[in-house]
Amino acid sequence: VQLQASGGGSVQSGESLRLSCTASGFTLGDYAVAWFRRAPGKEREFVAYINLSATRTSYSDSVKGRFFVSRDTLKNTVYLQMNSLNPEDTAVYYCSVKYGNNWIFAGQGTLVTVSS
C-alpha cells in the first residue's frame, strides 16, 4: 500500500504547479484525500481536503483562493492545482487518505520550491 505525490519542482513567485497523488495497492477513489505540507523547520500542516464523492472541499486559510483540489476516479488520481505560488508555499507536499479517524501517510512527498 503506497501513496505517491508527484509534480513538485522549482518555480518563481506567481507561477503555478499541479501536484498529483496516485495510489498503489488500493483504490484511491474509496477514500477522502487530503494534502499536507511541511516547510523547512516547521510542523506539518493541512493544506486541502476533498471528500470521497468530490462534492466537498476545504482549504487552509493560507491557500484558499489559490489552490484547488480535485480528483479523477478513472485515473485513480487526486490533484492539487497551485496558483500564484509564493516563497511561503515552499515545502514538501504529501497526500494522505482518511482511514477511520486517522490520516494515513504511506509514501514520500514531493518538494515544491518557490523563489522570489
Mean pLDDT: 95
What is the overall shape? globular
Any low-confidence stretches, pLDDT <50, length ≥5?
A: none
Order of helices and strands: EEEEEEEEEEE
> Beta-sheet strand percentage?
over 45%
**Count of helical stretches:** 0
Largest sheet: 7 strands, mixed
Distance between the termini: 37 Å
Structural class: mainly beta
Q: Fraction of residues in helices?
A: under 10%
Radius of gyration: 13 Å
In total, the number of strands is: 11
What descriptors fit this protein?
7-stranded mixed beta sheet, 54% strand, 11 strands, 116 residues, 4-stranded antiparallel beta sheet, mainly beta, globular
Short characterization:
The chain is 0% helix and 54% strand.
Explain this structure:
By secondary structure, the chain is mostly beta strands. The model has no long low-confidence stretch (mean pLDDT 95). Strand 7 (67-72) and strand 8 form a beta hairpin. The protein is globular and about 40 Å long. 0% of the residues lie in helices and 54% in strands. It has no helices and 11 strands. The chain starts with a strand and ends with a strand.
Architecture blueprint of SSEs:
Elements: E1 2-6, E2 9-12, E3 17-24, E4 33-38, E5 44-50, E6 57-59, E7 67-72, E8 77-82, E9 91-99, E10 102-104, E11 110-115
Parallel strand pairs: 2-11
Antiparallel strand pairs: 1-3, 3-8, 4-5, 4-9, 5-6, 7-8, 9-10, 9-11
